[in-house]
Design goal:
alpha/beta; seven-stranded parallel sheet; two-stranded antiparallel ribbon; 9 strands; about 35% helix; about 10% strand; globular
């Protein structure tokens, strides 16, 4: 059946300006880190992405290593673009990243110009795109000068392979320096993507202030701590949970008795507010962002 997007989709979502830029992103984006790889069922992922777009979610976030195996999430999304989303490409913000291990040898990870440019070329091929809307340096490289990494992002924009660029997992000091270098090159950093949740509040120790002072946007990942901030793990580990999957990043060792006790306490607070634990966790992220 030919996919036709819901005509009322833009009335179902709020959109927020990213920093001081002209770009608007939906209040909720969808990331393809899990559940969209070769090990997953394509039709399930297809149904999720269709539903997301029908609800006004226009931002689809990927990375070169999403899967598993690495690269397969971009391949899956490329299939979706070809089969369902081709007429809507200009209504979408598609982002990808490079920084983690992708291939053997000295040029297959981190932050060199060689790796970042090569990886983005591979990502574009996997997705069948001429450009992405946002390209990120996925993590800081301790051995490559930051000037080279940010210079590569500047080059990528000038080559027309990305409209905007950003960084992910950089601390406050690294972010401040990256913003300064990018501004000097003339390609400002649009956005920073850190991990953040009620269980992981590291960005409150300086990073938020740096971003606000410089007018740089912020979009968090794992606001539900990969599902821990839901009701899944309040009484053990369900067989259909992310922890139970052999291919997931969340491990059983993360579900400690101390964490479960904290989740149960948070769940009681949420219930007193008439919310689920997940609703309270997401609302907390929105409140902090505001």
């Amino acid at each position: 059946m030919i996919y036709r997007a819901e005509e009322t989709r833009y009335g179902k979502m709020k959109y927020h300006r990213v920093g001081k830029s002209g770009l608007l992103l939906p209040a909720i984006s969808i990331g393809l880190w899990h559940n969209f790889g070769e090990v997953d069922t394509f039709e399930n992922g297809r149904a999720i992405l269709r539903r997301a777009f029908d609800l006004g979610i226009t931002h689809f976030d990927l990375a070169n290593n999403y899967g598993p195996p690495a690269g397969s999430a971009e391949e899956m999304f490329g299939r979706m673009l070809a089969s369902d989303f081709a007429p809507y490409r200009d209504e979408m913000i598609i982002s990808t990243k490079a920084g983690y291990y992708m291939w053997p040898g000295p040029y297959g990870e981190w932050g060199s110009k060689k790796y970042l440019v090569a990886s983005l070329n591979q990502s574009l091929k996997r997705m069948g795109l001429d450009y992405v809307d946002i390209f990120y340096s996925h993590r800081p490289d301790p051995d490559t000068p930051l000037e080279e990494t940010i210079g590569a992002l500047d080059l990528i924009v000038r080559q027309g392979k990305a409209l905007y660029v950003g960084i992910s997992n950089y601390n406050a000091d690294q972010t401040a320096k990256a913003i300064r270098i990018a501004n000097e090159l003339g390609t400002p950093l649009l956005i920073h993507q850190p991990s953040y949740s009620m269980l992981n509040r590291w960005i409150e120790d300086g990073l938020q202030q740096v971003l606000e002072e410089n007018g740089t946007g912020c979009i968090v990942y794992s606001p539900l701590a990969q599902g821990m901030l839901s009701d899944k793990y309040l009484n053990g580990i369900p067989a259909d949970s992310r922890v139970a999957k052999s291919t997931g990043f969340l491990k059983q060792s993360s579900i400690t008795p101390e964490v479960v006790t904290k989740l149960q306490k948070l769940n009681r607070i949420a219930a007193e507010r008439g919310q689920s634990l997940a609703q309270m966790a997401i609302a907390g992220c929105f409140a902090e962002a505001a």
